[in-house]
């Protein structure tokens, strides 16, 4: 990871959001805070000086483990519960006349009958759920369950866990902690942020926003999810934010089709489109080498080519076309990348 804090945590996040995060007195910030302090930083500094990381490893194994479901093995949770919490957080920020209740029905939680602490049962349960809901990947039906690792009640105000804080900070000491964290708790690499503003943001998204090729490579090698989508309001087009509506029947956020994709942080949800929007060719090639779907469409129906047009990334547009991007795919406005360029008056396309 780079030596500078990520764009998400530094210059491009509104000051009031960071202020809210920093003012929170939560247990997670006693381990790692947004000021570059915390117990883990002190231990990492001491261990680095001594050239021995036994103290840090012991703290991770004995103390940090307590904040995770099933000691780091994770726990399957209904998507409907996560969406309800997201909806409540959004409505808490809105006036009474702007609030929207989550639509649809969540259905019964079949996980209530299972003890997920039994490892052998957990494996069989995941396989059964994947068959029932189609796995939620590759354009199939949306998964109704998600595996969460860090306890929801012990997260930061962005819905983040300690690995996410390491990536948000990005210093050398945070890098040391991050690598040891994923050694002890490999499932953290796919544990997402859960707040309204950052819902779905994964460690892979963060490494890409940081333009950190080294840590992106580590995450990909360990099995980071290429199909994880970031639905957070921070990464939503400005002229769509007021339309954000939840349904208990799926994880994505419903948005108005009436948009010109205003703002600078609409990155298209997928890790590959994040790489395109940040203009990092090496990361783009790394994701393609892992078989990332070049023509995946986000909630707006936009592909990587559409995102190149929206963000005026002409060099990336050439790279996407050369790699096999389909210029005929239309978004939910029935616009291809070329016709979208005409509508948005992008004369350089």
UniProtKB/TrEMBL annotation:
Membrane topology, from the record: Multi-pass membrane protein
Protein's cellular compartments: Cell membrane
Domain of life: Eukaryota
Start-end of each ANK repeat: 199-231, 267-299, 300-332
SUPFAM superfamilies: Ankyrin repeat
GO BP annotations, alphabetical order: calcium ion import across plasma membrane
PROSITE patterns: ANK_REP_REGION, ANK_REPEAT
Calcium as UniProt keyword: yes
Protein's name according to its UniProt entry: Uncharacterized protein
The encoding gene: Cni-ocr-1
One Gene Ontology cellular component annotation held by this UniProt entry: plasma membrane
Primary residence: membrane
Any matching Pfam family: Ank_2
Molecular function in Gene Ontology: calcium channel activity
Keywords: ANK repeat, Calcium, Calcium channel, Calcium transport, Cell membrane, Ion channel, Ion transport, Membrane, Repeat, Transport
